[in-house]
Design a protein that fits this description.
Chain lengths: 422, 316
Amino acid sequence: MTRILKSILFATTVLAPAGFVATGASAQTATLTIESWRNDDLPIWQQKIIPAFEAKNPGIKVTFAPMAPTEYNSAVNAKLEAGTAGDLITCRPFDLSLAMFQKGQLASLNDLPGISNFSDVGKSAWSTDDGKTTFCVPMASVIHGFIYNKKAFADVGVQIPKTEDEFFAVLDKFKKDGKYIPLAMGTKDQWEAATMGYYNIGPNYWKGEDGRKALIAGKEKLTDAAWVEPYKTLAKWKPYLGDGFEAQTYPDSQNLFTLGRAAIYPAGSWEIAPFKAQADFEMGAFPPPVKKAGDTCYISDHNDIGIGLNAKGKNLEAAKKFLSWVASPEFADLYANAAPGFFSLNSTPVKMTDTLAQEFVSWRQNCKPTIRPSAAIVGRGQPNLDLEMWRVSANVINGTQTPEQAAAETQKGLDSWYKPAK
Amino acid sequence: MSDTEMADIETVPVKRPTRWHIAVFLAPAFLVYTAVMILPLIETLRLSLFNMVEGQLAFVGFRNFQTLFGDPRLSADFWNALRNNVIFFIIHMLVQNPVGIAIAAMLSLPGLRFAAFYRSAIFVPTLLSFVIVGFIWKLILSPIWGIAPSLMDLVGLKWAFAPWLGKAETALIAVSLISVWQYVGIPMMLIYAALLNIPDEVLEAAECDGITGWSQFWKIKLPLILPSIGIVSVLTFVGNFNAFDLIYTVQGALAGPNGSTDILGTLLYRTFFGFQNQMGDRSMGATIAAVMFLIILAGVALYLFVIQRRMRRYQF
């Protein structure tokens, strides 16, 4: 207890002034400061994105000021309340940013030139519940699917599975062959089971946006067949996971795959860059298999990062100029190629040089995109639906809970606070 | 005559200079402790009586505690954490302390070779950071990269290996034993010091009376080190009910699988700071912290007022 109290003291005394120092620079008229949690992207912004903008807009200087992801939300909230935040605020998807908008900290961007470059689904993470007001420019989404080891597929002589039966046939072949672990996934960190499992294959069952919206409207329940069946499929994954998958962590899974010991990796597109750096074999990707050949396919194309306008910023005009540039196809092209795996939400198609990233993004042409079901509206109460789904998905794969029990538990948690609008 | 003079001198109060140095020497510790321990503790207790009402922090009396014990989910989480915490403590009391005493008793045997080496080797894990201990054991027990499966295979025990940290039935025991491994040095050191304090005359007298070996340990040494065992138990109690770090490094903030290693410290962390998409709730976090404080206070008070008073002390 005292340790935590000490860290609170530390946070309030040492970290808070650090924020003031970082934003002190924004006092000059034409300098924009971007608040962000993307530490990893600092070189991309400094070397590629900001110079490209400044070359076109000579009067404006831009500073990218990232901080540690875990501290971002509490720090940026404190700065917004104290009036010391930068002009541009990087937006987390859904409720965190919505709360900022409701407090009047983020400005409406409905009349921003370029905001029409985004579809409603693209904007959904940063719009009010009625969809009428958008308060952040969508920057990128991440797509779920399966990354596979091309060499392993050639070794065992299997093709990319299109349907679920084919998928399990492929897994069976790998299991019989014994040289590769069929599926690289563990349940110890729990989120893998939900994020790479349930959210990955689920949209094919609950029909993407249709099911997600029906759940929000209260027309469907998590105990309906469409929401229970993905758990049943997940439970069937168990025999194809590696030995001791119950204690296998996320880095374990990544290493198993990049070392070439596993054949298929249930993935998110953010893995592309690190996998490319580590694996010395060819990789391909396929979308979650559909139930029957010819079924419409659905993919999880989850909005992850956006950028908004500090309503009380000092350089509103310059900041708006920057935002409409972020909404332009030019920015989409720059960003998507600098950070492969983070896909542009812009309606204008982006040419990406990374082949694996191209493969992921090509699914958008045939498959209907949706976002993670627990992210919007049904994810803002206690108990948090996202965390509940992590836990029960891991339980289902471990075999300690039946799919029906898992579904009933999440629905019970949702019922305890969520009353769908009627 | 001389007596009365002496008395007169004594009754005149001696004017001594004010002893400023006491205040000066106490001040740093007092200030630091007040700033980093006492004030936050008071502030936490105060915060547990407040909550957000319509966007404003308002006094709500004991309503937070009512929610903690009345809300079906929150109370289930709390009782689960408390139960796990009690099991965590019992494992320490049953394994860590007896093993610590046994090692100390063996180390204090005269004529033991390499006693200093054993003493240091067993104490070293206590000095290691919990992060190192957590990661070492996570790796040792990993079914993929760990050395536990192959070592057990060497002695033909491969069948007995399981991904202990990933199974709900075994995870708490595994984590408790890791903690025992780390901290067994503390009871060992304290008991060892107490054993060394027993005068040789007492032991020689016992030997003259024919009490040697095991019965000497049970009848002479153990009663003499009981106060130290009491202190060790209290330290274990306080440490276990404040524990958080090892579980956090080994099992993460979710204390999985399925909450089976969730103890009060991890529950407090998730509630206060939030986790992933779950927002932090400072008032409810402070409420849990206050309950933890009361549990520890009750335990320590029980020891101080009930057990320690009945304990016999021996003066040599």
